[in-house]
Amino acid sequence: MARTGLIRDEAYLEHITSDFHPEHPDRLRAIYSALEDKELQEKTELLEAREATVEEIQWIHTESYYQKIESTRDCGHRQLDPDTHVSSKTYRTAKLAAGGLCVLVDAVCSGQIRNGFALVRPPGHHAEAGRGMGFCIYNNVAIAARYAQNRGYAEKVLIVDWDLHHGNGTQHSFESDPSVMYFSSHQFPYYPGTGRPDETGTGTAEGYTVNVPLPGGQGDEDFIRIYQEVLEPIAIQYKPDLVLVSAGFDTYYRDPLGGMGVTEDGFAEITRVLMRIADNCCEGKIVLTLEGGYHLEGLAQSVKRVILALQEPGSPDAAAASPSDTTERIVRHVRDTQKAYWRL
Ligand SMILES: [Zn+2]
Question: 201 alpha carbon to ligand 1 midpoint, in Å?
Answer without folding.
Answer: 22
